């Protein structure tokens, strides 16, 4: 489970990450990564729209994504904001497919972040 200290809660933070962050799209999800001050823990948030399914399906997808991101939260730079938006395909995707898409998106986002700083 994603620790409480690493959860993104403020609407302004979601907006900042989506509008100003780097984007990496995959078939089941889209990841956005925004760097901020280096003094805080990395934060992760999730967007699961009604196009994914009904409330039960959306909550299941959100729980699965939270579990997967918790395994990668230590890879994120300090002070960063990560927003993961689920695509409709996430509702029917298996665990391995979601995990592979998240891993691939994070690789692209982190590779871009390191290139942008150098």
TrEMBL record:
<dbReference type="Pfam" id="PF00825">
    <property type="entry name" value="Ribonuclease_P"/>
</dbReference>
<comment type="subunit">
    <text>Consists of a catalytic RNA component (M1 or rnpB) and a protein subunit.</text>
</comment>
<keyword id="KW-0540">Nuclease</keyword>
<keyword id="KW-0255">Endonuclease</keyword>
<dbReference type="InterPro" id="IPR020568">
    <property type="entry name" value="Ribosomal_Su5_D2-typ_SF"/>
</dbReference>
<dbReference type="GO" id="GO:0042781">
    <property type="term" value="F:3'-tRNA processing endoribonuclease activity"/>
</dbReference>
<dbReference type="InterPro" id="IPR000100">
    <property type="entry name" value="RNase_P"/>
</dbReference>
<comment type="similarity">
    <text>Belongs to the RnpA family.</text>
</comment>
<dbReference type="InterPro" id="IPR014721">
    <property type="entry name" value="Ribsml_uS5_D2-typ_fold_subgr"/>
</dbReference>
<dbReference type="GO" id="GO:0030677">
    <property type="term" value="C:ribonuclease P complex"/>
</dbReference>
<dbReference type="GO" id="GO:0004526">
    <property type="term" value="F:ribonuclease P activity"/>
</dbReference>
<keyword id="KW-0819">tRNA processing</keyword>
<protein>
    <recommendedName>
        <fullName>Ribonuclease P protein component</fullName>
        <ecNumber>3.1.26.5</ecNumber>
    </recommendedName>
</protein>
<dbReference type="GO" id="GO:0000049">
    <property type="term" value="F:tRNA binding"/>
</dbReference>
<keyword id="KW-0694">RNA-binding</keyword>
<keyword id="KW-0378">Hydrolase</keyword>
<comment type="function">
    <text>RNaseP catalyzes the removal of the 5'-leader sequence from pre-tRNA to produce the mature 5'-terminus. It can also cleave other RNA substrates such as 4.5S RNA. The protein component plays an auxiliary but essential role in vivo by binding to the 5'-leader sequence and broadening the substrate specificity of the ribozyme.</text>
</comment>
<dbReference type="GO" id="GO:0001682">
    <property type="term" value="P:tRNA 5'-leader removal"/>
</dbReference>
<dbReference type="InterPro" id="IPR020539">
    <property type="entry name" value="RNase_P_CS"/>
</dbReference>
């Amino acid at each position: 489970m994603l620790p409480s200290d690493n959860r993104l809660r403020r609407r302004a933070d979601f907006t900042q990450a989506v509008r100003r962050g780097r984007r990496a799209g995959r078939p089941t999800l889209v990841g956005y990564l925004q760097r901020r001050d280096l003094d805080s823990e990395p934060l992760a948030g999730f967007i699961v729209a009604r196009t994914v399914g009904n409330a039960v399906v959306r909550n299941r997808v959100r729980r699965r994504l939270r579990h997967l991101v918790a395994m990668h939260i230590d890879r994120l730079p300090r002070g960063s904001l990560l927003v993961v938006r689920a695509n409709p395909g996430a509702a029917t995707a298996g665990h391995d497919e979601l995990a592979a898409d998240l891993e691939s998106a994070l690789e692209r986002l982190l590779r871009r972040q390191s290139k942008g700083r150098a």
